[in-house]
Design goal:
Elements lengths: L1 H27 L2 H10 L1 H14 L7 H38 L2 H8 L1 H13 L1 H8 L5 H11 L4 H25 L5 H24 L1
Helix pairs in contact: 1-8, 2-3, 2-4, 3-4, 4-8, 4-9, 5-6, 7-8, 7-9, 7-10, 9-10
Length: about 210
């Protein structure tokens, strides 16, 4: 029960950020505007792009717009690489925030029963939701923090994070490079490809 409550509290926390600032950001930022700003400082704009994706952990930054702008300025391959790295760093930062709290504290906070139940869930099926959530709003931040708090194995988390972040980064960089608005199939690829990649990684891991 406490684990469900914590998940809801985290979702509300991030939703409040979107409610307070998200609409203004979406209205003020679009791919063309952000790409124009990146072009003005192309030598170091990649660092700004990564910083914005990292800030998406706590602030309502439109991450897909940032990724597409990186693709528009740096092209599919370099822009996609930068976008994927920014998404992965954000995920690992969320994991680190959760892991910052000691296990004894987490058990007292959640109750030992909920802690062990959540820990088991993240060990068995957490990788699927981590991988497939990267293209969605709110959930990536919540799940990354919970993965750290509930001690999901770091190696497993990073592989799942890469399965979600890398396809999404390159996909939206490609969309930005094409100068195309976000097509409906973009979200489908962002959800489907991570699932396929994690499934392959899980099979290979068992064989190894």
């Amino acid at each position: 029960m406490r684990l469900i409550l914590l998940t809801l509290v985290l979702c509300v926390f991030f939703l409040l950020g979107w409610w307070a600032f998200g609409q203004g950001l979406e209205e003020a930022w679009n791919v063309e505007v952000l790409a124009g700003r990146f072009r003005e400082a192309k030598g170091w704009a990649w660092l700004v792009g990564i910083a914005l994706l990292l800030a998406d952990l706590l602030l309502p930054i439109p991450g897909t717009i940032v990724m597409s702008a990186l693709g528009a300025v740096y092209g599919v391959w370099l822009g996609g690489f930068i976008a994927a790295m920014g998404s992965m760093l954000a995920g690992m930062s969320g994991y680190g925030i959760g892991r910052f709290f000691k296990e004894d504290f987490a058990k007292r906070w959640l109750g030992e029963r909920d802690f062990e139940k959540g820990k088991s869930l993240f060990r068995r099926g957490g990788a699927w939701v981590v991988a497939m959530s990267r293209a969605l709003p709110i959930l990536p931040e919540v799940l990354a923090c919970l993965a750290g708090l509930l001690r999901m194995p770091f190696g497993k988390f990073v592989i799942a994070l890469a399965c979600g972040s890398v396809p999404m980064g390159f996909l939206f960089a490609w969309i930005g490079a094409l100068g195309t608005d976000y097509p409906g199939w973009g979200l489908g690829f962002s959800l489907g490809v991570p699932a396929v990649l994690w499934g392959a990684a899980a099979v290979l891991g068992k064989r190894g």
